[in-house]
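User: Can you predict the 3D structure for this chain?
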Amino acid sequence: MAKMDKEKKKQGFAAGFYHSAAWAKCREAYANQAGGLCERCAAAGKIVPGVQVHHKVRLTPANVYNPEVSLNFKNLELLCEECHQAEHKKGTRWRADEDGHVSL
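Assistant: Here is the predicted structure, written as structure tokens:
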């Protein structure tokens, strides 16, 4: 399976949002505002480039197109790859499919 196909399948219900011009513009603006550094590493005194704009409140089928959740700077943080991976591994014991059904 091609990388783009895997990425779309992984994103499921949010694929359209993550490929939207609104998200691209928001992501770039937020990363610039954050100074391009991982916010968690910077808080710990480390200088590490940020590579992922992360949603603090996870996107769901119910909120993905709600700009107060999906495009709100208060719900975003710029993370390095290590911090982003740690965030998604932390407490992840379930997954939601594209229809919002939860599986363990």
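Residues 15-103 form one domain. The chain has a mean pLDDT of 84.
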